[in-house]
Write a structure and sequence with these properties.
heterodimer; A: alpha/beta; Pyruvate Kinase, Chain: A, domain 1; elongated; B: mainly beta; ATP Synthase, domain 1; about 70% strand; globular
């Protein structure tokens, strides 16, 4: 039976595919761990920054008057899309694109029709997909590998400048939020104008700080920093989610390969058995013929 | 006094020092032992600190904030 050889070849190919998916899963697991450490390293910084803000924000009313808080009619909008550079990570990227398209067709349909939507893409996949139907203002793919604070800070600064100069009236971020290695939540967050800066508890201990140069100046300096930090956090979140998604996808692929292998082996053994039976019948009937 | 200099990606310095010089928005200033509580914004520049062995160390920052409280100096750099 020629079938036998075919099945053997298929088994070999499934096995090698399984090896690849298994290896990719391990790689993603290692990268995920690194991404998670980066998030944890960021925590003391952001905690401290919020604490200082809390100490400062007794003049919270004045904060509302700052340009970055200004609510305007949303004539020009910008969307920051964070995807991945590589595929094979399940629905990680497609979910992001669907969400962006959805936003562009419902909430911002008019702006999109007028061409007043700017797309800021991070990751090759977003560029490849969105360039088909839209214009892309800004694109970066190295950020995902380096996760450098400086680069993302530059983007944040540019967005804030454009917002203050009224080139854009609203900024959205669409990305995958990291919940745990197996779950990602797709979110679209408002970045600008600032909706509210968390200020739940009143500062409990009031240390008599000297403010140098003045409270307001420091506040003006601090708010952009917090925004940049927020942007950086979203980037790290998205990177961790990507590796998590890829890990899950590769795990599933390895499992599926196992399943296919099982079926193929069964088929192979069936074929082998029937070829042996056939041979036996031939021998036996040949012997019979001689006896007669 | 205890000094910590951290950035979003890493920790630049942690330990004891006798003097730290910072690039404040209105100019350079130094902090010595037993400074009063202070919060200040920083601009792009060099941070200089003198550790307990009188060795000088320099760090480049792009801006940041500094908080001084009970002989603990925390620099949130960028």
């Amino acid at each position: 039976m020629a079938n036998l050889k075919e099945i053997r070849i298929r088994i070999a190919s499934v096995q090698s595919t399984q090896k690849i998916t298994g290896a990719m899963k391990m790689v993603s697991a290692a990268k995920l761990r690194r991404a998670q450490t980066a998030i944890i390293n960021l925590r003391p910084y952001s905690n401290k920054l919020n604490e200082i803000l809390k100490n400062l924000s007794s003049s919270a009313d004045e904060m509302e008057n700052m340009p970055l808080f200004q609510q305007r009619k949303e004539a020009n909008i910008a969307i920051v899309v964070i995807s991945s550079n590589r595929g094979l990570c399940g629905s990680f990227n497609t979910n992001v694109f669907k969400k962006v398209e959805h936003i562009l067709q419902t909430e911002y349909a008019q702006q999109a029709a007028n061409g007043n939507v700017q797309l800021y893409c991070i990751g090759k996949k977003a560029k490849e997909q969105l360039i088909k139907n839209h214009e892309i203002t800004w694109f970066n793919e190295t950020l995902l590998d380096t996760s450098a604070f400086d680069e993302i800070a530059d983007l944040g600064e540019q967005l804030m400048q454009d917002f203050i100069n009224k080139k854009i009236d609203s900024v959205r971020i669409v990305y995958n939020k990291f919940i745990n290695p197996a779950t990602q939540e797709l979110v679209s967050e408002d970045f600008l104008p600032i909706q509210n800066i968390k200020n739940e508890s009143e500062s409990t201990q009031t240390n008599d700080y000297i403010f140098e140069p003045s409270k307001d100046t420091i506040l003006c300096e601090l708010i952009p920093k917090i925004l940049k930090l927020q942007l950086y956090k979203t980037l790290l979140d998205s990177i961790a989610s990507e590796h998590g998604a890829r890990m899950t996808a590769m795990h599933k692929a390895t499992d599926n390969a196992n399943e296919i292998l099982k079926e193929l082996k069964l088929k192979y053994n069936n074929a082998r058995q029937s070829s042996i039976t056939n041979e036996l019948i031939e021998i036996v009937s040949g012997a019979e013929a001689l006896n007669n | 006094m205890n000094i910590e200099i951290i950035t979003p990606d890493k920790e630049l310095f942690k330990g004891e020092a006798t003097l730290i010089q910072l690039p404040g928005i209105d100019g350079l200033f130094e902090i010595l032992e037993n400074h009063a509580p202070l919060i200040s914004a920083l601009q792009k520049g060099k941070v200089k600190l003198k550790d307990t062995h009188e060795q000088e160390q320099f760090f480049d920052i792009r801006g940041g904030v500094v908080e001084v409280l009970h002989n603990k100096v925390l620099v949130l750099a960028e």
